[in-house]
Amino acid sequence: MKKGLTSGLVLLVLGMIAGLLLGVVNAITAPIIAENELRERLTALEVFYPDINTAYDVTEVIVDENGIESIYVLKTKGTDTVVAAVYGVAKMGYKSDVSMLIAVKADGTVEGYAFIGTGGTEGLGLVLGNLDFGMTDALVGDETAFDAVGGATVTSGGVLACFAAVAARIAAEGLGV
Q1: What is the DSSP code (8-state) at residue 144?
Q2: N vs C: which end of the chain shows fewer Cβ within 10 Å?
Q3: pTM of the model
Q4: CA gap 97, 81 in Å, rounded
Q5: How confident is the model at residue 57 (pLDDT cuts 50, 70, 90)?
Q6: Domain limits at 64?
Q7: pLDDT tens digits along 9-21
């Protein structure tokens, strides 16, 4: 009995020490990991804004609401003037989510968009990035500008739903909020 109690106490102390060390290592590495992840996301945003690292101050807002996962607010460097916002959004396509980045200028027009993940439509779902849905330079909520892709109506619906989610967010909260 005494041997079992001693072994239990030794294991408890070792577990507490390991937990403490893990907490210290996490406290040191978590900010570095977060900074590296933000740097990777900013690299993806260079598709829309090649000078993103020099001309803009970028703030990430985590949303996780109505398919919008995050918003990257771009302000002219050193000012509070919002130039654009890039929305990370995902909506259901044919078999899986259509994940996109949608860049919207301050006037509400679409600067551009890029696909991160496809909606699963065989053949077309894998090449969504090569398709033009007609939304560049259109108002983000203008469904009449949207050009669906024949043979991929469900996936096109997911793409349209992404634009609609961004338009609803802008209408309710304003650009980048």
Answers
A1: G
A2: N
A3: 0.72
A4: 33
A5: confident
A6: 51-173
A7: 888 888 899 889 8
